[in-house]
User: Fold this.
Amino acid sequence: MKNLLILVLFLYTTATIAQIDANALLGLPEATTTNINSIPTATIKEGVLIFDTVKKKVFQFNGTEWKELLESPSVLPKIGNYTLIESDNRNILTFDSTTDITLTVPAGLPIGFNVSIYQIGNGKVTISGAGGVIIKNRLLRFKTAGLDAGVGIVSTDTNIFHITGDLKRN
Assistant:
C-alpha cells in the first residue's frame, strides 16, 4: 500500500510539472556581448535586464553600466593593511602576511555589504571600524584566530557590521 501511494504521488508530481504552460514563462531580450555594449547608455533605463547569448548570463543596467546578476565572487589576495571598498562586496579576500595586519571597515558601505576574509599567512587580521563604524561580535572577538581562519563580515544597518567566524580576542 505504501509503495502504491508513493507511485501515485510520483505520477501526480510528474504530470503537474509537465503541464506548465510555456506561454506563461517570462522571457528576456537577447543579444550578443558586442551588441549589448554598442547600445548607447543614454538610451537605456536603469534596471533593464538582458540575456547575453555569448556569456550565457543575465545582465542588469545600473544607470552607468551593465552588471552581471548572480555573479560569482572573486578571490582578491591582499598582503598588508587594507580598507574595504564597495567593489569588495560579495567577494572573498585572502590575507597572506607574515606579520599582523589591520582590515579597516570604512563608513558608507551599503546595508547588506557582505565579504568573507581568510588568513592564509601567519599574520593575524584585526578588523576595525573607521569614521563611526561599529563592529559587533557576541564574544568581543575582532582578530582572526590563526592560519586558515575564516571570517564573515556583514553590514546589518547603516555603519553597523557584524563579524562571525574563527576569531579571538585582541
Observations:
- The chain has two domains: 21-71, 75-168.
